[in-house]
């Protein structure tokens, strides 16, 4: 790699951005912040700047370049050239690059929803309690990319199922998509039960009762733990399948797996 300090003019910034073929989605908030730093005379030369790969593609610095163009003011920047093209996986660009940004760079659709969904699937497969924060041991980016590539179709289908309910007042997208994904692994017909819970269009008393309970919690701005929400959903679906009232005496993490196994037994022995 070579590095040197260069003056980046708006014209030069435009030229560099023509080679910005694989980078994360832009954050206008970040561009506006950097633009204010430049126009207010607060911009300072630092080790963070522009990075260009051996192939001539822009790896790092798109927000700085857009800020130069927007401000119309040239700035001095550290420019690194002839860098390895895989460097984007470990580089920060103005604002920290997250797993969703990496997925977007790799060409995945639904890059905002995928990390939360994959985190919950990994927790489930590890028999952990499903939380908002993700697995106890964070997923390495290479593992996340491998999982996304191997399960792309089923992940997309789960997200699309939840997204088509624009007035969903029951599940956040990650939990809803996880439920669809998990049920699809048992039998595709179960996805229809999730549709009924989310939409409220159902004649099944067990599913309607669950929906009313969850909508009431939302209206009262009360949060329910993701794993408890999954457990309640599985119990209601089990009741719907058996057309029988079943009750859990207390919430336990293991119950979700027990209900899943009971549903599996019903469908796998048909």
Task: Detail the topology: elements first, then pairings.
Elements lengths: L1 E7 L1 H8 L10 H12 L10 E4 L4 E3 L1 H10 L3 E9 L15 H7 L8 H12 L15 H10 L1 H12 L9 H12 L6 H9 L5 H15 L6 H17 L10 H16 L2
Parallel strand pairs: 2-4
Antiparallel strand pairs: 1-4, 2-3
Description of the molecule:
The chain has a 4-stranded mixed β-sheet with strand order 1-4-2-3. Strand 2 (50-53) and strand 3 (58-60) form a beta hairpin. Helix 9 (191-199) crosses helix 10, helix 10 (205-219) packs antiparallel against helix 11 and helix 11 packs parallel to helix 12 (253-268). The protein folds into 2 domains: 2-97, Conserved hypothetical protein from pyrococcus furiosus pfu- 392566-001, ParB domain; 105-268, no CATH class. It has 270 residues and is an alpha+beta fold. It has helices at residues 10-17, 28-39, 62-71, 99-105, 114-125, 141-150, 152-163, 173-184, 191-199, 205-219, 226-242, 253-268; strands at 2-8, 50-53, 58-60, 75-83. It is elongated, with a radius of gyration of 24 Å.
Keywords:
270 residues, alpha+beta, Conserved hypothetical protein from pyrococcus furiosus pfu- 392566-001, ParB domain, 2 domains, 4-stranded mixed β-sheet, 12 helices, 4 strands, elongated
Total helices: the number is 12
- Strand arrangement within the widest β-sheet reads 1-4-2-3
Shape: elongated
- Give the end-to-end Cα distance, rounded to a whole number of Å: 62 Å
**How many strands appear in the DSSP assignment?**
4
Total count of domains: 2
Largest sheet: 4 strands, mixed
Uncertain residue segments: none
Helix content: 40-55%
């Amino acid at each position: 790699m070579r590095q040197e300090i260069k003056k980046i003019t708006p014209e030069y910034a435009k030229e560099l951005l023509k080679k910005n073929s694989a980078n994360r989605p832009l954050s206008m908030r970040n561009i506006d912040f950097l633009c204010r730093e430049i126009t207010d005379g607060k911009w300072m030369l630092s080790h963070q700047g522009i990075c260009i790969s051996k192939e001539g593609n822009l790896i790092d610095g798109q927000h700085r370049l857009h800020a130069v163009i927007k401000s119309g003011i040239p700035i001095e920047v550290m420019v690194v050239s002839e860098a390895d093209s895989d460097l984007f996986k470990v580089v920060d660009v103005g604002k920290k690059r997250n797993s969703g940004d990496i997925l977007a760079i790799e060409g995945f659709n639904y890059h905002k929803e995928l990390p939360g969904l994959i985190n919950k699937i990994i927790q489930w497969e590890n028999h952990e309690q499903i939380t908002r924060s993700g697995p106890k041991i964070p997923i390495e980016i290479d593992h996340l990319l491998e999982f996304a590539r191997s399960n792309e179709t089923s992940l997309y289908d789960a997200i699309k199922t939840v997204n088509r309910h624009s007035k969903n007042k029951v599940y956040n997208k990650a939990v809803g998509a996880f439920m669809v994904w998990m049920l699809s692994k048992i039998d595709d017909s179960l996805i229809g039960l999730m549709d009924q819970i989310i939409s409220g269009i159902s004649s099944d008393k067990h599913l309607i009762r669950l929906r009313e309970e969850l909508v009431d919690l939302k209206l009262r701005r009360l949060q329910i733990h993701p794993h408890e929400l999954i457990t309640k959903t599985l119990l209601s679906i089990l009741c719907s399948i058996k057309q029988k009232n079943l009750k859990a005496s207390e919430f336990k993490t293991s119950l979700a797996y027990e209900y899943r196994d009971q549903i599996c037994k019903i469908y796998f022995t048909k």
